Structures are given as C-alpha cells and as structure tokens.
Automatic annotation (TrEMBL):
Domain of life (superkingdom): Bacteria
Catalytic activity: ATP + protein L-histidine = ADP + protein N-phospho-L-histidine
PROSITE patterns: HAMP (PS50885), HIS_KIN (PS50109)
CDD domains: HAMP, HisKA, PDC1_HK_sensor
EC id: 2.7.13.3
Name of protein: histidine kinase
Source organism of the structure: Imhoffiella purpurea
SMART domains: HAMP, HATPase_c, HisKA
Histidine kinase domain ranges (all copies): 267-490
C-alpha cells in the first residue's frame, strides 16, 4: 500500500474515532443536561409557590379562606391560558406545568387537574419524602412502555410560622415539553460535528498531500540520480525530510565519486595503452645503431605525435571531469553569444587559413545566455576543432547563431541555437549512436589521425549543465552539422 494511503487511512481513522466519540458524548449529554436544568427550575418554582400558598393551609390564619379561593382560581385560570413564545428555535404554544398542593396528610387540596382534588398522594415519592423532611422528587411514565411519556415531579414543603411542615407543593413537567429543544440541540451538535469532521478531513488531505509530495520529490530525486541526471536534493521545511534529502545527496556524491574514479581509471588505462605502446616501440627501434636518418626522423615524429596525444587526453579528461562533477553552475553570468562566437572563430582562423578553409559566421540576432563563459568557450572550441579536423582542404565551415521561440503567453523562453556545419565525409552508420561516448573517435581525413574521443562528451556535459542540448546531423555527402541549443533570456510580452 502506498504510504500516502497509509497516512490518510491512519489520520482519518484517528480523527473519525475521536470525532464519533466526542459527538456521541455530546449528544448523550444533551438530554440529561436539559433534564437537570428543568429540575433545577422546578425546585426554585416549587419553593416560591409553597410560600404563596402557605396562608391558605394555616387554619388559624384570618385570611386562609380568601387565599385558598385565590389559589384555586389562579390554578383554574392557568389551565386555560394561551401562550406564543419563541424559545431559541422552538415555538412554545402550550403551558405544560402541572401543580398540586397537599395538606400535611398528603391529601390534594389544590390542583391544576380537577380530578386530583381529594386524592391521597402520601405514598408518592415526591410527597412522601417531602413530608419526611427530605428532598422529594420522582419521574413517572404515564405510559410504561413509552419513554417520552415520562413526567418529572419536584416537591417543596409548605411551612408554618414555627417551621413545621403543613403541606407540600409538587410541580410536574412532562418530558415531551422539552423534547423539541433536545432534538434541536442534538441536530445542531451533529451538524456542527459533521462540519468539523469535514474541515479536519480537508486538513488531513492537505497534510497527506504535502507529505506525499515531499516523499515523491525525494523519490524523483533518487530516480534522477539513478538515471545520471544533474539535480540538487529537494528542499523541505520538515527537518526530518530535509535531513533525509541531505543524506541522499551526500550518499550520491560519495557513490558517484567512487564510481567516477573507478570508471575513469579503467578508461584512462585503456586509452593510454595505445600511445604508450607506440612510444615504447618507436623508442626500442631508435636504439638500433644502423637505422637510416629518414626512418629515425619518422619514429621521432611518431613519438612526438603520441606524446601530444597523451597530453591532449590528460587535458581533455581533466576538463571533462571538472564539468561532470558540477551539478549546477556556481556563479552564472550573462554571456553574449555573438561576441563569444566571434572570439572563438578568430582563434581558429590561423589554423583554417593554413588549409585554405573558409569560415562563414552568420549572426541573426545577438542573444544572451546565463552561464559560464569559459565552459561555453571550451565547448564551442571543441565543435570548431571537430569541424576543422573533418573538413577537406579548401572546404568551408558555416557557423550560425539562430533563435527559436516555443509558443507561450506572457512569459516565453527563447532558445539560442548555434549551428556549425562542415563539408567532411559525414558520420558512418555504425558511429551515429556512439559519437557522444567517451574515448570514441573517428579517423580524421588528414593522415587518419584520431582525436581524443572526449570533445563531444565535454560539449554534451556543458550543454546539459546550462539546461541545453547538443545534436549531430549527418548531411552526407555535404558533411556534418552540430546544433548546440541553450536557453537564453526570458522575454516579457507587453
């Protein structure tokens, strides 16, 4: 399973379980909380009413009959009152409070329900406990099998002047009267909980995407290194991922350094064998005392030529090694390609004149690139050296600076293309896929001399280091054309 799926599954499992637990607790606590609030209110109301009806239960009280009549009328009128109240999101249209008052024996003397008058409620917990001097309350279902038919009763004692209990006031409130409030509260909690879960899901998705993207960048970097591409280790704000990227970069550098040394020791040893063998053979022949002077000069020239070849191989190999070890340009600077081409062509002009080779330089537009001027000059010199080496005497070399622009809107990348074409024999079919291999070279027309086989490899490394490319086109029988493409400055459309 992909790590992104594992992280997402783990995150959503934890958040989902935590969210479900919290929502369940909140929902489960809504109804008890409402019931506790309702009971607290009933306790206050019962004690208040107990003080109001106390005169009606005091027999020697001079106004007992009048107060009793007023209490009875008030309870009777309460039954028929209408109400229209907007409580939060619940509209209350009925009065649901039930009141009954008993004497000291537990017999009902006043009630909002006429059928209760005269009944003995002394065995009901609310009346029994209150007459015993304790807190009296009970909850009774009018329909035993139906939970919503539950009615809460809360009682308060009616006291005489000496603090004796002479009666009980009991308030009753049916559960269904607050059921809409409970339902609305539960619905709100569920809705808000779902919104919270959705927000956490989005945050989790963003977090998973960010982590997965960082891991994908690391994996892409590892694959690029495996493919031999130049790329800096990816940067990350997460310290652990940044340290991992640095560790991968350091591991790459060490492995590349080891492989680089092993590869070049092998190839260098192989390439040095031929010129060293030629020098050794010529030196042994020169020890013969009766060798004619023409032969001696020929062997001396061979030793000199092979020595020059060894020097060229060493110099080119050092240049190539330096470029290959660079992952990025250290200090890129603006380079005018037109001026650079003119300098390079001027440097090869004496060699071209010795063989009567014409060099035609055509600059369509002076373009500027960001890069290393020295490396670009060495790359162009290698291309011009190849063109001269494969050109016949009296031939012509065409050097062009062209411009190409891919389609774009406001920001467009301009490509500078340097084309160098000669009139040599072209590229044989067997060599077309190997011309950029290290130490692979073709014999040049003049005396069959070969190059070091490192020039085009160097040019390719320089081109890639600058974000460009190099390609060779076989234009037989008219020769070969090298095309060096480099990204130039970015032009802004008005």
């Amino acid at each position: 399973m992909r790590i992104s799926l594992q992280v997402a599954a783990g995150y959503f499992l934890i958040v989902g379980l935590a969210g479900w637990f919290v929502l369940d607790v909140f929902v489960e606590e809504v109804e008890p909380g409402v019931r506790d609030t309702m009971e607290d209110t009933l306790v206050d109301s019962a004690n208040l009413i107990a003080e109001l009806v106390a005169p009606a239960l005091l027999d020697p009280h001079p106004q007992a009959p009048l107060v009793g009549r007023l209490v009875a009328e008030a309870l009777e009128h309460y039954r028929w009152r209408t109400v229209e109240a907007a409580i939060w999101q619940h509209r209350k249209r009925t009065l649901d409070l039930r009141v009954y008052v008993t004497d000291g024996e537990g017999r009902v003397v006043f009630s909002t329900e006429p059928h209760q008058l005269g009944k003995d409620y002394s065995r009901w917990n609310d009346i029994y406990l209150t007459l015993a001097g304790r807190y009296g309350a009970r909850s009774t279902r009018t329909t035993p099998s139906l939970d919503t038919s539950s009615v809460m009763h809360v009682a308060a004692p009616v006291l005489d002047r000496d603090g004796g209990i002479i009666g009980v006031v009991s308030l009753a409130k049916p559960a269904y009267s607050v059921a809409p409030i409970v339902a609305i509260s539960e619905a709100k909690i569920r809705d808000r909980g779902l919104v919270l879960l959705a927000i956490t899901a989005v945050i989790g998705a963003l977090f998973t995407w960010h982590l997965t993207r960082a891991i994908e960048r690391l994996r892409g970097y590892a694959r690029a290194v495996t493919a031999g591409e130049r790329r800096d280790p990816p940067r990350s704000r997460a310290r652990e991922l940044a340290e991992l990227a640095d560790a991968l970069g350091e591991m790459r550098e060490r492995l590349e350094g080891k492989q680089y040394v092993e590869r070049y020791l092998h190839t260098l040893t192989h390439e040095l064998k031929s010129p060293l063998a030629a020098i050794r053979g010529a030196a042994e022949l020169l020890t013969e005392p009766d060798m004619p002077d023409p032969e001696r000069r020929r062997f001396l020239d061979n030793i000199r030529e092979q020595s020059d070849r060894l020097t060229q191989i060493a110099d080119r190999l050092l240049e190539l090694a330096r470029v290959e070890q660079q992952q990025t340009l250290a200090r890129p600077e603006p380079v005018e390609l037109a001026a650079l081409l003119e300098e390079c062509v001027e440097g090869f002009a004496p060699l071209a004149a010795q063989r009567d080779i014409g060099m035609d330089l055509r600059i369509g537009r002076s373009l500027q690139v960001q890069g290393d001027r020295f490396l670009l000059a060495r790359a162009l010199s290698n291309l011009l050296d190849n063109a001269l080496g494969f050109s016949p005497d009296g031939g012509r070399i065409r050097i062009e600076l062209l411009e190409s622009q891919p389609s774009g809107r406001r920001e467009r990348l301009t490509w500078a293309e340097i084309a160098i074409g000669d009139q040599g024999p072209g590229i044989p079919d067997y060599a077309r896929d190997r011309v950029f291999e290290r130490f692979f070279s073709l014999p040049r027309p003049r005396a069959g001399r070969r190059g070091t086989g490192l020039g085009l490899s160097f040019v390719r490394e320089v081109a890639e280091l600058h974000g460009g490319s190099i390609a060779l086109e076989d234009r037989s029988p008219t020769g070969t054309r090298a095309r060096l493409r480099l990204p130039a400055v970015v032009s802004r459309m008005p």
